[in-house]
Amino acid sequence: MAKHEYAFYPGCSSQKGASASNYLTSVESMCKTLDVKLTEIPDWNCCGASIGYAEAGELPRHVLNARNFALSEQHLPGQEIVATCAACWLGARETRERLTHSDTLMSDTREALKEAGLTINEMPNIRHMVEVLIEDLGFDEMKKHVVRPLEGVKIAGYVGCQTNRPFGVDGESFENPQYLDKMVEMVGAESIPEYEQKVTCCGGALAFSEPEKAQAQIKDIVESAYDHGAEMIVTPCPLCQANVEIYQGHVNKKYGTKFDIPVMYYSQLMVVAYGGSAKDAGLNGQVIKARRLEEIAAKPVKR
Amino acid sequence: MTEHVATNETILVVGGGISGMTAALEAAETGKNVVLVEKNPALGGRTSQLYRYFPKLCHPTCGLEINLRRLKGNPRVRLLTLAEVTGIEGSTGNYTATIKVRPRYVNENCTACGDCERAVEMKVDDPFNYNLSQHKAAYLPNAMAYPQRYVLDPAIIGTADAEKAKAACKYGAIDLDMQEETIQVKAGAVIWATGWQPYDAAKIQPYGYGRFKNVITSVEFERLAALQGPTGGKILRPSDGKEAKNIAFIQCAGSRDENHLRHCSRICCMASLKQTHYVREKYPEDGKSTIYYIDIRAIDRFEDFYQKVQADPSVNFIKSKVAKITEDEHGNPVCHGVDTEGYKRYTTPHDLVVLAVGMEPSVKGINIPGHIVADSSGFIEADPANGAVFGAGCASNALDVNRAVQSATAAALRAIQVVNKVAKAEA
Amino acid sequence: MADIKVAAYICKGCGLGERLDTDALVKIAQKDGKVPLAKSHDFLCNADGVAMIKNDIANEGVTHIMIGACSRRAKTEAFNFPENAVARANLREGVVWIRPDTDEARETTQEMAEDYIRMGCAEVKAMTAPAGNPNTGGSKTLLVVGGGVTGMTTAIEASKTGYSVVLVEKSGALGGWAGKLYKRTPVHEPYKSPADTGVADLVSQVLADSNIKLYLNATIAKTDGAPGRFVVDVATESGATHTEDIGAIVQATGFTLYDMNKLPELGGGKSPNVVDQAGLEALASAAAAGDGVIRRPSDGAPVKSVVFVQCAGQRDTTGQHLSYCSGFCCNASIKQAMYFKDVNPDVDTTIIYTDLRTPGNGEDFYRSAQEKGVIFTKGKVAEVMPMGNTSTVKFNDLILGDTDASMVDVDLVVLATGQVPNSGVNIELPAEAAEAGTVEIKPISILNLSYRQGPDVPQLKQGFTDSHFICFPYETRRTGIYTAGPVRRPMDIAQAREDATGAALKAIQALENAELGRAAHPRSGDLSFPKIRLEGCTQCKRCTVECPFGAIDEDEKRFPVVNESRCRRCGTCMGACPVRVISFDNYSINSVGAQIKAVDIPDEFSEKPRILILACENDAYPALDMAGMSRNEYSAFVRIIPIRCLGSVNTIWITDALNAGYDGVMLMGCKSGDEYQCHFVKGSELGRVRLSKIDDTLKTLNLESERVRDLEVAITDIERVPEMINKYAAELVAVGPSPFKGF
Amino acid sequence: MSANTAVAEKYRNNFLKEIEEQVEMGDWVKMCMQCGVCSGSCPTNFQSAWEHPPQELFMMILAGKREEVLTSSSMWNCTSCYNCIVRCPRKLPITHIMHGIAEYAHRLGMAPKMQPTRFFSGLFWKNCTHTGRVNELKLSLGLYFKDGFVQGVKNGMAMQAVAIGLLKARRLNPFELFGGHKCKDQTGIQAMLKKAYEIERSRKTAKMAG
């Protein structure tokens, strides 16, 4: 039996061949080390994300999330649902809050779920992977497994929006959350607590629909990381990761900058620090290669 | 000032700020015996830390001097300093208060000559200056301190410095063996005048108080302007001691905000308007103030003061709740937001940002019998269920000084009504 | 005077013994001070030192005590001898703490101390321990003028405290403004809905209270006397007059709504569908008595849309209307909007405001109104145009930047006009303004005081009754007469009730202290009082005109009559008197004059000028003391005498000083004018007016105008005051020594 | 009078009522006190993006400016960053209100037709509900070709580098075009969503009827 077991909701981007497949890879390796068992919710569906709003309406959006709750309850009774994607976590949590606070919405949801042969009896807890790490395992436990500290690497912790607002990680501030910096320190790297863009919005879905608006923000996020001497950026959110990483070329073209900074997931740092290979950490999934990490990952482990 | 014995005809006044002193003196001057309890080593409370009052721009210590003189001349008030009421038992006309008295380590022999202060080295934060500066660990709390008697900070006890202080005193005033005491006091009625505390500005995350040195609170700004404050009355910013001439005042820092304080704290608009005067007073040539506000609440006759400030070209008003503050490379706090009158976005650096922090009643965590009735913000309401425990001043509502004094005077009458009834029954 | 025995005690503690030749000081007290008993003590303020003094009082027959130690503001508990006349020579804060501890300074410092001993001895000999004033009255009845919420509350609270009350209401019913309200703004959690006014309850309490004597349809025909012994004639409708003995008075005469007919641009007076807040209350009350629906006055149709115009005729900067904010109207409009919403949520209610002012828990009331669908629009109303049964409201929408916004087909417009205090005759209104009619005159007196200075309580510029409205809000300029409620400051019912309760206490306190012959604030408990030696009086009336508190009347022969219980003991009368016939037992022309004369004036070749400082004891003297505590040094050539108020400074002191060879005189008093900081309100101003004429005196003496300096000093001037002194001392060197030295 | 042409009286409550009935979280609009913290907190709140920032939109709703509000592109600029929500002193769920107003404008057909985010939003929803999971390739292509084929090729070219990068990193699968990720119980999902729409519509209609 694993120490911790959860129903896993990877979300659309964390599938094979999807934009955050490297996130998935590294989370799986990380969990193995930490003895955390994630069981994928069978036949889970998309959360609808915040951007689906034009068509989604209110009830269909909640029904979509509720279907995942129902599946989890049916197949993985008693387990908390863990998401790795900020949007999935937020969407599911919002549905949970709304259904809990409105009897009408709850009964309407049940009525719709019936059409898919499902129902909900109890509201599941919805957790972000970061919450699991911090609250259920704790920094001491996480640190225990570090065998290859990322010494001398300076990393800007970019928390972004949706893992931070409106719910956020318990005890953290909306304006200056510190857990990512602590995680950076935990893996033996150097954090930048004063990085002022840590909660700036990456533009979210607007990065696709109206890229020029989002790119101005991406520029600020990257520029400030450079100003603070960061070698890489770390984030807990797939959309943040993608937006900040893949548009650097566009930003360079538009603003004449020469950005080329890797954008990593916390789980990738941990896997490397835990002694995993570049492949375990999904480093091959970087559009902007994290050479420094690759070098470290190639080094032998101090046991 | 004397040591009369407290009985059921005594009025217990908790808090020695302007409200508590007023309640105590008004009752005493009407012939009632009063026990006045103050948790600090000296009377005066929060108003004594202000540089000036609105709207007359006079000095709070001016009224304090009169109140202290009234007190010195009145045998009916018994004063306990460094004392906190930890519990009250009983009912209307028959209360027993338990009071914890912390040691001052200095007895009544003290002449306030200051020899002990000169003898010691140790320095501790000076709460009178909101810890913006330090004072010696043997200190007189402030120039107006009453009782006019030195205090030893507990941190000095057990050190060689403490012995130095003792040795320096020619009058045997220093008693290092003084212990905390718990005493009980009888009273027929109780007036809670424990005042207010500034809302913890660090909780207002977007403003970066605690992260940015040049973001300070309105109460701290009073000390910067005060002639006896940490900067000798010069408005210098904390980060680099530079003259702060371009100052932003942010209203509703905590108040009118369901994430913080639900209520409007009433005084903050006037306080900021007043503080723009300090900027002009200290930097007549190039001082500049910007007030970011939702509604300017210059209520009743104070409107005149608002109109005067509006007419001042050095003061700029922007109807906007500042969204967030960042810091630029020069250490200047930068205000970000939107002027809602006509939708104008701004990103404005200032030398210093002053947060007009809200008022929180200082009534939490006190064991009052029968569960005191308070409103959703914690202010004591007037309610028969409170028996003869009466809120006064800012323990009862967000009030300016004038209204706090009114409230305290009214509370004194309510308490007198109770003890008069006791006296009649006992006669 | 025969059986006084003066003793001088000189302390050697706090460095006095090291810095001064205290033996010499003892000798000075004996020789120059001519005291039969002079002693020094190592530590005068400790139990042993105090016991020594007490023993001398008991066994040596000492009646007058001169203490040469610390400031009179320090060690007050130790040096507390209420039966004796006591003078304090300030050797610590006033001498050793403001002088450098150097060999060069030693001589001048010692001279300073010696002079203070001489001065203390001279002063105490000119004093007697005061014993309270005669002409006390024992009435324990309060008069309350005004039967609204404030007046009723005062009456009920005073009665509950055990005092009887005479309550006079000019109309035929109790209740006042609040009695006309449908509901009031809430004062308890959850602050969500309009609440019962509570007026009916107050009325029944008043009517049921045998301690309260009620006069309806009655006015005050005459108020005579002083606290503790007022004699008040109450005139009733029938023409009968009832005389009441009264101890103290609370004036709770409330306010009148600003006349909306003065606001034609806002539709005031132009249509029955434009009402003020009182008008709406009447409509709401009428609706509540019927089917609950508020109807349009013009045709009785149910109101479907209503607009509230905030600050109507208020916060006006043009000088045409009220300049102030009445404070209660935002909450009142919210409440009135709820009258509609609570009955029918479909009625459109819009409040147009510039700054919404709902302090404290009013914020919850504001939120509740928003929840109920009341619309708040930040804007400035330019015009209300009634047409037929509806109106168009044109305004500048400040958020949307639309200067030409308008609402059409509005059924009802409510103008939130402000409170105008009913404060009676403005006794200080400049005659020319009254004649020119530039200021509105309320010719009907409320109290009809038979005081020399006029029939009502003095007012501030906006017509509200005068008070120290920050620290001591109840202190009017008529002792024993307190004002409460909106006559004092615009306010709502909750505040008025609080104010009324406080005013009841102050009135009770005043009559109790009046009975004991003691002063009221700010010299509360003071037993001294002005005595006039009528034989010397020239009936010049200066004392009666100048008294800031209207304490002095004139008798048929035009001699001044002091009503001691009205007096606050500031001494302005004493300062004003050209023939110096007014004095207090412990503060007189002589007690100060003797000190001035006691100072040893070195000759013109000594290069030791002498500067007299007369310092207000409330602010300047504490500032000087604190300068000492901070060891801020100043010139050893000054000799400081605390005075009760700048108003008490008699010019004879200055001329005496200059004649005696002082080189200069500094007068330190509080700020005067509109933002006065004088605790006696007008004292420092009157003092300054008097001193402005000193130049003539200087001319006759052939002296430079620099020799007298009038200075505003605040209590915080701890750094500044020594600088002022040193600067002045340097200036006087340039002017040169006084030609009167050695005469 | 059709919903699209309904005329709101200026500074009357009828448009507010409409918003309250038809817009998710619309009953919060009236609680705004015009402090402007939302406008100042919005990351895309530069004038060109937001013709009317949130607090101004709220005032416009109160002022009955129906046409201007519903045809505005402003609320489509929301990035769902939730800054406004956590800072709002009145706790208005502003992000959701923005989405709600946008959804309502879209439902009425009053939203600007070629507003890119409106287009993307619809596209996303259709994409994800089609199979239960998002097909990122189809989503992207759908977006690039929204303005027609030529523009699509241009957009695609502009994004070429990004796509190649993702392809190389195995984060974009070209075969998604021919199927890709999907849920097994697509029938159940469709039936469930159909029911949800039915219920929601009937509730909104009932509200409109009063």
Could you say which overall geometry of chain D the principal axes of the C-alpha atoms support?
globular
Radius of gyration of chain B: 23 Å
Can you give the helix content of chain D as a percent range? 55-70%
Radius of gyration of chain D, in Å, reads 19 Å
**CATH topology tier name of the largest domain in chain D:** Fumarate Reductase Iron-sulfur Protein, Chain B, domain 2
Q: Give the count of structural domains of chain B.
A: 3
CATH architectural category of the largest domain in chain B = 3-Layer(bba) Sandwich
CATH superfamily of the largest domain in chain B: FAD/NAD(P)-binding domain
How many strand elements of chain D?
A: 0
Which range does the strand content of chain B fall in? 15-25%
Tell me, briefly, the overall form of chain B.
globular
Query: Spans of chain D of 5+ residues with little confidence (pLDDT < 50)?
Result: none
User: N-to-C terminal Cα separation of chain D, in Å?
Assistant: 16 Å
GO molecular function, one term (chain A): oxidoreductase activity
Protein name (chain A): Heterodisulfide reductase
Pfam families (chain A): CCG
Organism (chain A): Thiobacillus denitrificans
Kindly describe this structure.
The complex is a heterotetramer of chains A (303), B (427), C (743) and D (210). Chain A has 303 residues and is of the alpha/beta class. In chain A, 46% of the residues lie in helices and 10% in strands. A 4-stranded parallel β-sheet of chain A has the order 2-1-3-4, with helices on both faces. A 4-stranded parallel β-sheet of chain A has the order 6-5-7-8, sandwiched between helices. Chain B folds into 3 domains: 11-102 and 180-195 and 362-426, FAD/NAD(P)-binding domain; 115-168, no CATH class; 199-359, FAD/NAD(P)-binding domain, CATH 3.50.50.60. Helices cover 22% and strands 24% of the residues of chain B. Chain B has helices spanning 18-28, 60-72, 115-119, 160-168, 218-225, 268-282, 303-310, 401-426, and strands spanning 11-14, 34-37, 77-80, 83-91, 94-101, 123-125, 134-136, 138-139, 151-152, 181-187, 189-192, 196-198, 215-217, 246-253, 288-293, 315-319, 324-327, 333-339, 344-349, 352-357, 359-361, 389-391. In chain B, the strands form 7 sheets. Chain B has a 5-stranded parallel β-sheet, with helices on one face. In chain B, strands 13-20-14-15-16 form a 5-stranded parallel β-sheet. In chain B, strand 4 (83-91) and strand 5 (94-101) form a beta hairpin. Chain C is elongated. Chain D has 2 domains: 3-112, Alpha-helical ferredoxin (Fumarate Reductase Iron-sulfur Protein, Chain B, domain 2); 116-198, no CATH class. Chain D is globular and about 55 Å long. The mean pLDDT of chain D is 89.
